[in-house]
């Protein structure tokens, strides 16, 4: 098994989230017929993993999110994607 380490910037309550991008990332979203496909190269998958781990930190409040925009962070024609932290169930 290969081990991969990712770095996640510590969240400071009241501060802003800091998201890191792996060099050369490519991410594409395709939504059709009730399915959503996230297609990414290695750098894109690493970036998404880092973003999810950033949002998963204990002090990050529910509703915090990352907005990935068509033709900016995502490949043209993808539409937008929002990754949002939901409240933990008690």
- What structural class do the secondary elements suggest? alpha+beta
Strands ordered across the widest β-sheet: 1-2
Number of strand elements: 4
- Please, what is the average pLDDT? 94
Shape: globular
How many helices?
Answer: 1
What fraction, in percent, of the residue positions are helical?
10-25%
* Biggest sheet details: 2 strands, antiparallel
Q: How would you spell out the order of helices and strands?
A: EEHEE
Compute the separation of the termini in Å.
34 Å
Q: Please indicate the percent range of residues in DSSP E strands (runs of 2 or more).
A: 15-25%
Low-confidence stretches: none
Radius of gyration: 14 Å
InterPro entries: Imm32
What does this structure look like?
InterPro entries: Imm32. With 90 residues, the protein is of the alpha+beta class. The protein is 16% helix and 22% strand. It contains one helix and four strands. It has one helix spanning 42-55, and strands spanning 27-32, 35-40, 65-68, 81-84. The strands form two sheets. It has a two-stranded antiparallel sheet. It has a two-stranded antiparallel ribbon with strand order 3-4. Strand 1 and strand 2 form a beta hairpin. The longest helix has 14 residues, at 42-55.
Please describe the topology of this protein.
Blueprint: E1 27-32, E2 35-40, H1 42-55, E3 65-68, E4 81-84
Antiparallel strand pairs: 1-2, 3-4
